């Protein structure tokens, strides 16, 4: 599903996506309110959502989609002109699986959509570092105190590594386990924490205090 208030932008994305054999645009929306309604009607795998739109913006639309249990399989990918900023951070907390800038190369856009469809977060190590820096800027009392008690020791370690921006293969190498086992640990942690994807694990790791932003920067 394409969500953008500019028809020309939507037309460009549609032309690019529908040239691919494995991708199909099932709906288009011009604002957040319409996006939520169409998401409930069409249940897309991916929703490409612009942040800044008149009426309901992309952040609120993301929050409503993420909160709807019937839309738990919908992955929201935020579209932005500016890269990481406070709007992107807000969208990630609201439940977005990641973000893409609008001037991205076509092949990178397609790759990003396919990654999101597989449940992977569109957060590079650079983006993860920016998230850490943003959390560091907060006063200590801004962090929730609830601890990740539901996780096993191995799962806590995996979440810490996810929060550092490591892939499953990198986690496996670091922990000296197989990539399949690493993936299983990540999946179980996501299930226990009700996280939609890895992006939500990153946010959870810092907001819960499982990982210290200040320690991560050292």
Please, could you describe this protein's structure?
There is one protein chain. The chain has helices at 7-17, 32-42, 58-67, 86-94, 106-117, 125-136, 153-163, 168-175, 179-193, 198-207, 213-216; strands spanning 2-3, 28-29, 46-50, 75-80, 98-101. It has 2 domains: 2-122, Rossmann fold (3-Layer(aba) Sandwich), CATH 3.40.50; 145-208, Arc Repressor Mutant, subunit A (Orthogonal Bundle). Strands 2-1-3-4-5 form a 5-stranded parallel β-sheet, sandwiched between helices. Helix 7 (153-163) packs across helix 10 and helix 9 crosses helix 10 (198-207). Strand 4 (75-80), helix 4 and strand 5 (98-101) form a beta-alpha-beta unit. With 218 residues, the protein is of the alpha/beta class. The radius of gyration is 17 Å and the shape is globular.
How many structural units, i.e. domains? 2
Beta-strand residue percentage: 5-15%
**Cα-to-Cα separation, first versus last residue:** 41 Å
Structural class: alpha/beta
Just name the CATH architecture of the largest domain: 3-Layer(aba) Sandwich
The CATH superfamily of the largest domain is known as: Response regulator
Low-confidence stretches: 139-146
| Major sheet characteristics | 5 strands, parallel
Helical segment count: 11
Mean pLDDT: 83
Protein name: DNA-binding response regulator
Domain Response regulatory: 1-117
GO molecular function: DNA binding
Domain HTH luxR-type: 144-209
Key descriptive features of the protein:
218 residues, alpha/beta, Rossmann fold, Arc Repressor Mutant, subunit A, 5-stranded parallel beta sheet, 11 helices, 5 strands, 52% helix, Tscrpt_reg_LuxR_C, transcription regulation
């Amino acid at each position: 599903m394409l969500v953008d208030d500019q028809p020309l932008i939507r037309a460009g994305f549609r032309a690019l996506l529908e040239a691919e054999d494995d991708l199909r645009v099932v709906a288009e929306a011009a604002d957040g309110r319409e996006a939520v309604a169409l998401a409930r009607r069409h249940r897309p795998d991916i929703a490409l959502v612009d942040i800044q739109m008149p009426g309901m913006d992309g952040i609120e639309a993301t929050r409503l989609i993420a909160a709807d249990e019937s839309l738990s399989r919908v992955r929201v990918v935020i579209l932005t002109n500016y890269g990481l900023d406070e709007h992107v951070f807000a969208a990630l907390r609201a439940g977005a699986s990641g973000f893409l800038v609008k001037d991205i190369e076509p092949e990178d856009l397609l790759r990003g959509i396919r990654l999101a469809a597989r449940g992977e977060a569109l957060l590079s190590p650079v983006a993860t570092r920016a998230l850490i820096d943003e959390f560091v800027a907060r006063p200590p009392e801004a962090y929730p105190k609830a601890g990740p008690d539901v996780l096993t020791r191995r799962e806590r370690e995996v979440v810490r590594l996810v929060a550092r921006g490591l892939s499953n293969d990198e986690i496996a190498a670091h922990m000296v386990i197989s990539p399949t086992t690493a993936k299983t640990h990540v999946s179980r942690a996501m299930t226990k924490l009700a996280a939609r994807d890895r992006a939500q694990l990153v946010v959870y790791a810092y907001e819960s205090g499982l990982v210290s932003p200040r320690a991560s920067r050292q």
